[in-house]
């Protein structure tokens, strides 16, 4: 029983974080059919900036975290400007490799500036534990799903209620008509990369206190989140969040009951099987082909 | 500059620059410096430990060179990064031996990397000195002519020591193991089982976890439910910290005896205050800021400002002594040929190191310079590693 | 013997290998080892080049196959199997795993495929870690017995030599594969998956072959790697290694023969030069990769090759008589379509289409835009699976067959937007058609001298006068159309489907095309033609099927069709529809709202608009009319900023607006309500309408919305429904309302009546008349020509990108130029106007 509760808590927390990062993949993919493969590195950037601004510059969290997220947003826009747009403009698929390289560059740039030692980002929500059904839980673990689902819902609402949000949806649903409405699609694409990076940054800030802050902390999160985005089908935000929870829970249950040795094998084999059965992901749909 | 190249090779490799080609030929200088190769993790998560080893070797070489070198020749360090990757380590070792022409290798932070290099070192007949990796089979590799020596802890002996510590100090009867899922963990699983069997004790379970596991509660819960009254911990600093955090979460206060993983970084920062409860093994510590080697360190490396900046001191001490022993053997052999150095290793004695004075540290049966008496149980206090008073 | 490009490549490979082998003896052990690594990488990258460079698939999991080969080899060696058996066995094991992985993967593309390969690499890596009894776990396996050959020990230098020889063999094999039927099929799949299918190439088998070859090469490389390293562990096979492999291929030049060699050499040797800067290595790699992608996307070899002259051997085009004999079908094929239908999301795109295309006949399919003509071709050619009906030819019902299956039974087709294989030459495009999807030998060049000669003959036949060796993607639109016809003919089809072959062709070319189509039909091919140029259709067709809104309305001879009232109504609009005229005589304002001068624009090399000059005055409603393909939509899109004009001037309210991005043009008050409504389907009607005001500085107040709803009462009940659920008419109302929301100074309407029921059209036009009477300036494009003119003050008639007539609406309505512009016969006027 305790084991099951532990697995569920861990799975929901991590799943929510994967979902949050995956949401970033989904947003840019919806807007321009491209993703930022450096997303995992931006998770790391969020955590590193959060650490540097609070622990080294001594800023209060309320100032430091928004600044860290702004840094992530800027990085997202830079990635789009330098590593995606030049290739998109010439109809090349090389943005894929370019953003992968961007991630390598970012990881190493941080390694040489931030240092090679894992550091710890303190949080008031780590230290005291809450007892839930016989298992101890850091409040931070519960904060992740709350923030992730909250953000997903908030985005859903913002997209529908605000002028720019609707403009973004318009670009997703019909890019050409959006241009005819006078929407600057270039700026919207740039914005979607910024937003996607902010989500990654939030994930980084949330997970850091439970983990440690170092230059290669994001790579694996990025890959898992990409798997989640694919599993969710890349078309709907709710599908991607749901896929995040499914992935997190499967991962935690496999770890708990089979041992962590089998986690990757089982989870990724399952992913291939699911995609074999549903090539557009669990909740995705195929577009109508035209000639 | 080495001699000019035949034209054929230039056409052969249009993309190659002259620099790369120039190094394609063995350096054969007889009176230049004696090169010593270092293969260690200089980047990534273990870089801190790699840096400690580099510092130890550098200090020892400075001392030797200042005193006139070895056989009248200066020592020179050639470093290669193995990225904690055995394949990369093996290629780097080959390159150091076959291209740089080093007289001996020092290296291997990680047991897998060392294990990958061992067969090559024995075959190439190049002495391979280990200042860190503790895997038992590194030195006990079964080779007829064993070129691998070590100035460091040995898993089997460490396991014996930490078992003794849990039993005698905490009266543990049924300890559990929480081990990192890699060859180092595997090696200690064997060592710990041996130590427990020797005492006729049972264990509460063997649990493995991964380097990047955020949460180890499931594994620890299983140990707790099996009635563990003490824990053996084997993992590097960051994953060790994840274990402590998970213990905290569970509110489980249990004595933890650890291999030296926590010494590899800012353990208490990562693990929180509970990190101080973890007791771990060390071979060398700076007992105060007046330690002569520490003084030299601050002189040579201005970035060192406090004792907290030189963790893990073990790496520095081991590497320092290893270099001195290696130099002594080369001097004794009067040659940079591998077989001669190996033979000389068994003859050196009275070498004054920073850990101890080595009298006949190596014999054909024992290639480990440090034994159980050289281990110190320690813990973190306010970010510094402090020996535990008995 | 001439030194062709192929022979030159072969010689280069052999020479490089020979020099490398000779040099081995001069090198120290480590450099020999490095040479071995370069050879191993070359083998793997050559395989990856088949997969990525040739077939265009992305694999981030190649290291998985590398690992599988290495472990299979190592385990076999350690269980006593001879090296000479273990090495190929490793390759076979990897290739088999590749085939298994291909089963789910061939159906995927883009990021989904990338993810599957990543997942696969992770699984292999972790299996290697966990399956300790077999793989040695994290510690890996080491010590692989030295192989023996003819009683001699096979030393490390021997092994390196073997690797170099195998790498050279791999490169030579790639060179041959790339020009074989398989290679052409792979390149075809990469450039144009759809038309690869319509040439008869089975995409699944092609991809499967690419997977197997890439995996097998990686497996072979893995075996050599294990033997060379004498040690393998899971850490040799991490995901980042896959990225380096792909990097090597891109750096060297994806799709070039020597690219993998150069890429492998750089990727392996570079760290050697940088060994002193060990920790900065990855930083350097990342930067180099980005730089290469940005500056030299074709890679080192591709960039160098681009400046070298091509050395394809010359062949003489086949004799025209031989060409005609070649394309004459051995067996005549009739295409009989009965009650064919298909629905998309509840909309009947085609319903009950029935016709027969006889061999020797030109059978045309006509109809207004959106009538379902291309959809009909798509069903016949197997691109869409029909929902109902039969398609019979050569004694089989082929309804629902895949594209490559219909191609193999003798149905060839061309596309509205040409779908040539961009990276192949004109000649190679045609050659790709010859085998009708039969791959042939894996190393047998498809382009035999006979075929090349016939390909040139076919190109000459269709009237292509350009360079046969030019890359298809560099050619102008017209040439691409011709090559596509030649490619279809290379298949020796019994049935030839042509989708708007005349679009964009000049008058003289059109006559040549008409002549060609007639001659093709005369050989006994059943030619099926979808075409808007009525002059052409009426001139050469034996029978014509007229479609309207997916329904067949007539199937008869040109003479009958031309005078069929329903056909004329479908094209010009129902004569019974009425629109309120102006109640007061209108005196247009003195100011020109929009002026275009000598405006030219188009897609690719050919201009669709050829020097269009017109003006719209303030408060005026102007109709721009013309047949499909005349350039009306192109004109509106260019004015709205969606397309950049190639030359000429667009002036709005005395300011140049050409070249501005659309959002700045919207700021100036010019709004286009696009063809096909283009709603935001998942936003509500209210949200759609509000987006119309996106660029306005002030928020629209409720009264404004209220006023719009009064104008479009149908929208009131639907205000909070998703726009996608509205009927076509409601969507059109909404699109106009959305356009009005920006308070436009000039409203452009593109085909507002398209696909609407007559009652709805009348309602819509009543509203447009109201807008006109309220003083809004409107430029209207509609194929309901008489209706549009009835509503407008003035009109222009556009034909083939030129304005051929202009005048008051009343005058144009009375002019027979209108009917001839739509149903043919206006050519004399066009030429007179020049």
Task: List the topology elements.
The complex is a heterotrimer of chains A (291), B (390) and C (834).
Chain A lengths: L1 H31 L6 H18 L4 H29 L5 H20 L15 E3 L2 E3 L1 H23 L1 H11 L1 H6 L4 H23 L10 H15 L4 H22 L4 H15 L14
Antiparallel strand pairs in A: 1-2
Helix pairs in contact in A: 1-5, 1-8, 1-9, 1-10, 2-3, 2-4, 2-8, 2-9, 3-4, 3-8, 5-6, 9-10, 10-11
Chain B lengths: L6 H6 L5 H5 L11 E7 L6 H20 L8 E7 L4 H15 L3 E4 L3 H14 L3 E3 L5 H4 L8 E3 L4 H16 L5 E5 L2 H17 L6 E4 L7 H9 L5 E4 L2 H14 L5 E3 L8 H5 L6 E5 L9 H9 L12 H21 L4 H8 L5 E2 L4 E2 L17 E6 L2 E4 L3
Parallel strand pairs in B: 1-2, 1-3, 3-4, 4-5, 6-7, 6-8, 8-9, 9-10
Antiparallel strand pairs in B: 10-13, 11-12, 13-14
Helix pairs in contact in B: 3-13, 4-5, 7-8, 13-14
Chain C lengths: L4 H20 L4 H26 L7 H17 L4 H23 L4 H21 L1 H4 L5 E2 L5 E2 L2 E2 L2 H24 L1 H11 L1 H6 L4 H27 L1 E2 L6 H14 L6 H15 L7 H15 L3 H9 L12 H8 L7 E10 L2 E11 L4 E5 L6 H8 L7 E6 L2 E2 L5 H6 L2 E3 L12 H6 L17 H13 L15 H14 L4 E5 L7 H16 L3 E5 L3 H7 L2 E6 L2 E6 L1 H5 L2 H8 L19 E12 L2 E12 L3 E5 L6 H8 L7 E6 L2 E2 L5 H6 L2 E4 L11 H7 L10 H10 L2 H5 L9 H13 L5 E5 L7 H16 L4 E4 L3 H7 L2 E6 L2 E7 H6 L2 H7 L3 H7 L1
Parallel strand pairs in C: 7-12, 7-13, 10-11, 11-12, 17-22, 17-23, 20-21, 21-22
Antiparallel strand pairs in C: 1-4, 2-3, 5-6, 5-8, 8-9, 13-14, 15-16, 15-18, 18-19, 23-24
Helix pairs in contact in C: 1-7, 2-7, 2-10, 2-11, 2-12, 3-4, 3-5, 3-10, 4-10, 7-8, 7-10, 8-10, 11-12, 11-14, 15-19, 19-20, 21-22, 27-30
GO molecular function, one term (chain C): ATP binding
Subcellular location (chain C): Cell membrane
Family (chain C): Belongs to the ABC transporter superfamily.
